[in-house]
Amino acid sequence: MNYSPAIWMVWRMAALIAKRDQTLIEPKHFLTTIFSLTTLRDSAHFEDPNTAPELAEVAKSFESFGLKANEILQRLQTPADVQHMMAMPSHPSSGAAISRSEICKRAFEQAGIAATEESISLARLRHLAGGFLMCSKELYPLFGITPATAAQLISSLLRPGSPAPAPPIPSPFAVSPNFHGPETRDIILHTLDANTVLESQINWSIVGPKFATLCELAWEAGPSGSMSTLLQALTEKILSFIPRATHGAILIVDPVTGDLDLKAHMPRGNVSLSKSSALQALKEKKAFIWQRQQNLSKTQFESHLESGVYAPIIADGRSFGVICLNSKSAASRLTAEDLFLAASLGHQIGLVLANRDLKAEVAQKIHVLERLMTNFSPQVRTYLIQRAQAGRLKLGGERSNVSILCADIRGFTLMAASMDTDDLLLLLNDYFAAMVECVFRHQGTIDKFIGDALLVVFGSPEAHPRHAEEAAKASIDMMEVTRAVSERRKAKGEKACEIGIGVHTGEVIHGFIGSVDRMEFTIIGDAVNMTTRYCAAAGLSEIIISPQIYEKLWRDLEVEPLEVATKHEGTLTAYKLLALRNPKG
Prior knowledge:
Layout: E1 2-3, H1 5-21, H2 27-37, H3 51-63, H4 69-76, H5 82-86, H6 102-117, E2 122-123, H7 125-135, H8 139-143, H9 147-158, E3 173-174, E4 187-193, H10 204-220, H11 227-241, E5 247-253, E6 260-266, H12 275-284, E7 286-291, H13 298-303, E8 307-315, E9 318-327, H14 336-372, H15 378-389, E10 396-409, H16 412-417, H17 421-441, E11 444-450, E12 453-458, H18 467-491, E13 499-514, E14 519-524, H19 526-537, E15 543-545, H20 547-553, E16 557-565, E17 571-580
Parallel strand pairs: 1-2, 13-15
Antiparallel strand pairs: 3-4, 4-7, 5-6, 5-9, 7-8, 8-9, 10-12, 10-13, 11-12, 13-14, 15-17, 16-17
Helix pairs in contact: 1-2, 2-4, 6-7, 7-9, 10-11, 10-14, 17-18
């Protein structure tokens, strides 16, 4: 944006004052220069003939509100040395360059915006003066003017002849004169980034007690109470805290359709709100106050609304809905404190809704996880679920010693050829269900079902100091329960079968493999292959254990030594497990 010669001259002189004060160029330096120069309106004192008229414009606007140059200079407490300033060059030089403060930079930006809105190629001095008032609320008490008076003064400087906007509130509040909803061109008094609401500068003594009450009410429902009851109670409560608002409503986004559903409103049966404004707050994640102007939306016109507050209900950047407060009273328009209160309540409701969603999501994931954990004993299952909830159940394996059990139904292939499919599945389920109970009773983990065989590991995924002992005990129990299943089936005239079991201990790699979306537990290693060899060597209702198992449990086992012939490993030494010497414990 280009600036008029008058602005450049004021800028140069303000920089010299700032250099004298050893500070950045602040609004007071510009204003001191402007009001000092207004006493020299004769164009003969300036290089550009338009400088004096621009100074006159500024002076006229301020004087119309009873603010004269000498009085303003006294309030600024910066005596003017006009003759000294006029002796300086009228254009800035690189040697005198002093940086502007952030407020000054924003004022210059606002001056450029105002000039563009007027279709003027050069920003004028009045635009800059108006920009300072817009961006520095601290000037109001210095000039002895109220915010309402400041709004009118800003309007006379920036938009002569237009309705006066209310003054802005510094960040995170900001004036948005060009902020319009889809259906309305009503002026937006204040906007507030809902994500930074708690960082806002606000009169906490006014808002604090009300905010605390709303927070307590918001969390009364907790993660399982009635949301409809909660939202209605919050609507009624915030209206009691903001008597300037005559109507209130809370809209919640339907997660399936994306529509805004009316979840609460007051007065009952009388809904007055602008859907376009609600959608704007939802989309922009900004709370704002609007004020009635000449161009109303259809809803606002028919509802006779004068002002309103629209605040998004958000948490972690997600928009859940909108709080809508509206007033039909032109004399009691809503305030910045009302805006802050509504935006803060939007955060609290958002947290409640996010907490509910999180609880439902966790419950669903745990349900799915529990179904996936059916291969583990209850104790191990609880351990793994706790790790999953803490985010520590990850892909990967570890190498350690475990004990492995393989159980196989003997003669199953021949039996399957003569049985109906449904009957065959019922037979498998009868035997496997009984064997799995034994596995879990001894803290084993089902690695997999392989047709008519069952592969089990003890000491994984959670380490167990007596995994070999648990494997041996489980094999004895499995043999007993399968005999009981066979007797029950024979009594009903159903086919029965017998199993053979092999038990071995050794080093394996065990853990979860696959992907984050689909992971499975498995064990890998030569010890697994050896276990299947001992299982294959077992006869009907026999348990064959490896020398490694016997080395560990020799005091507790009654065995019969034997040799096992294998195709690849040759002849292996093994033991037939007959009984436990100490079956208890």
